[in-house]
């Protein structure tokens, strides 16, 4: 029997260690078009959809002819050069299994294109538990707009107050907040706890969250009488 509560999961930088690979693919695709962009600038923009990243780092609009060429080239580079070397963070499947065993409805909310999302989820070893998925292809506006989170929330059938997201960027935090749900941040995507301000709690990675699961917001959401989770704005990384 389900607990009528849900967890929405980001993927890149949250479940799989792919943020650097995405940034490199963008830099290489721009270079192939004769445009130089700084890796650090692109890296800070990973977590947005390409519709927002592209004009921010290069001034090029994605719907333009050049924008479409760069986007297609980036997808090709990512698939051929970088995807084969990406791995899931340690204990990612274990975390997803724990959430599923506790009866949470699980849904994915990713800024990745659908053709990339499937292979990335396969890397977690828990793709079978993540049937409800929303990607950049399902919505008009990508993160930090809330569209993809709202779409995932609808698929869970749960109320915002009974739903928590897990993400790794400030764009995830903004999207979750705009969708009216709380979010737990993970630092493994490269963002600091200060940058994840607004998350109800911050952990290093999926394994660290698992280590403190029994006093996390997830246990509180299930109404098990476990130790109360930290309030909004507080962070956890092994200790309160």
Brief digest:
With 240 residues, the protein is α/β, with parallel strands linked by helices. 42% of the residues lie in helices and 10% in strands.
Give an account of the 3D structure.
The chain has 240 residues and is α/β, with parallel strands linked by helices. It has two domains: 6-17 and 87-221, 3-Layer(aba) Sandwich (Rossmann fold), CATH 3.40.50; 19-85. 42% of the residues lie in helices and 10% in strands. It contains ten helices and six strands. It has helices spanning 19-32, 39-45, 50-58, 65-82, 92-101, 114-124, 147-156, 170-179, 206-211, 217-221; strands at residues 6-9, 105-109, 132-134, 163-167, 182-186, 201-203. A six-stranded parallel beta sheet has the order 3-2-1-4-5-6. The longest helix is centred in the N-terminal third of the chain and has 18 residues, at 65-82. Mean pLDDT is 91; it is low at 224-240.
Residue stretches low in confidence (pLDDT < 50, at least 5 long) are 224-240
Q: What is the CATH C level class of the largest domain, in words?
A: Alpha Beta
The CATH superfamily label of the largest domain reads: HAD superfamily/HAD-like
What's the N-to-C terminus distance? 32 Å
Tags for this entry?
disordered C terminus, 6-stranded parallel β-sheet, 2 domains, 10 helices, 240 residues, alpha/beta, Rossmann fold
